[in-house]
């Protein structure tokens, strides 16, 4: 299927200016153009753009994404390099997930803290709550907050 820049930008929830920038920077080497110079995107371009956005969300720079795109154009000779890069980004995402889970734990604790205080009508209720009285799933977050990890 073929798409105009407006159609693919809606489909990807991306600004047309971003698509033009990616094309200008060489991230879209296979985008076709009409005789009038209008970009025409196809399903393989959609896949590339989805991958670019995925890699961006991992924290990869556009410069490194360009290197990855260039490696794909080299063909099978760059499989090892591409695999190494994807594994590295996967590890970065796993690390981000771990940090986000710690953050979520602290937020869960603070929700519990304020819900408990709200029911009691005071935050002083927590002066009487011991670690053993805390829900078990919140104990690690409390230790993190208190620097006990």
Describe, in short, the structure shown.
The chain has 149 residues and is mainly alpha-helical. The chain has helices at residues 5-12, 16-24, 43-57, 62-74, 79-120, 139-145, and strands at residues 2-3, 32-33, 39-42. It has a 3-stranded antiparallel β-sheet with strand order 1-3-2.
Q: What can you see in these coordinates?
A:
- Helix 5 (79-120) crosses helix 6 (139-145).
- The protein has two domains: 2-85, Multidrug-efflux Transporter Regulator, Chain: A, Domain 2; 93-145.
- It has six helices and three strands.
- The mean pLDDT is 94.
- Strand 2 and strand 3 form a beta hairpin.
- The termini are far apart.
- The chain has helices spanning 5-12, 16-24, 43-57, 62-74, 79-120, 139-145; strands at 2-3, 32-33, 39-42.
- The radius of gyration is 24 Å and the shape is elongated.
- A three-stranded antiparallel sheet has the order 1-3-2.
- It is mainly alpha-helical and 149 residues long.
Defining key terms:
3 strands, Multidrug-efflux Transporter Regulator, Chain: A, Domain 2, mainly alpha, 2 domains
Q: Spans with pLDDT under 50 lasting ≥5 residues? A: none
Ends apart, CA distance between termini? 54 Å
CATH architecture of the largest domain: Orthogonal Bundle
Kindly estimate the percentage of residues that lie in beta strands according to DSSP. 5-15%
Number of domains: 2
Whole-number average pLDDT? 94
Percent of residues in helices comes to 55-70%
Global Rg: 24 Å
Please report the total strand number as a whole number. 3
- The CATH class label of the largest domain is Mainly Alpha
Count of DSSP-assigned helices: 6
Biggest β-sheet: count, sense, barrel? 3 strands, antiparallel
CATH-defined topology of the largest domain:
Multidrug-efflux Transporter Regulator, Chain: A, Domain 2
Coarse shape = elongated
Order of helices and strands: EHHEEHHHH
What is the strand arrangement across the widest sheet?
Answer: 1-3-2
Structural class: mainly alpha
């Amino acid at each position: 299927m073929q798409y105009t820049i407006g159609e693919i930008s809606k489909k990807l929830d991306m600004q047309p200016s971003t698509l033009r920038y990616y094309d200008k920077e060489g991230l879209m080497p296979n985008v076709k153009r009409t005789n009038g110079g209008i970009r025409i995107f196809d399903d393989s371009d959609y896949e590339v753009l989805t991958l670019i956005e995925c890699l961006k969300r991992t924290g990869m720079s556009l410069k490194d994404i360009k290197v990855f795109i260039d490696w794909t154009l080299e063909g099978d000779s760059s499989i090892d390099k591409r695999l190494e890069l994807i594994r590295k980004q996967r590890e970065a995402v796993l690390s981000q997930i771990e940090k986000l889970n710690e953050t979520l734990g602290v937020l869960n604790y603070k929700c519990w803290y304020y819900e408990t205080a709200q029911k009691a009508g005071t935050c002083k209720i927590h002066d009487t709550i011991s670690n053993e009285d805390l829900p078990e799933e919140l104990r690690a977050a409390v230790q993190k907050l208190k620097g006990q990890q």
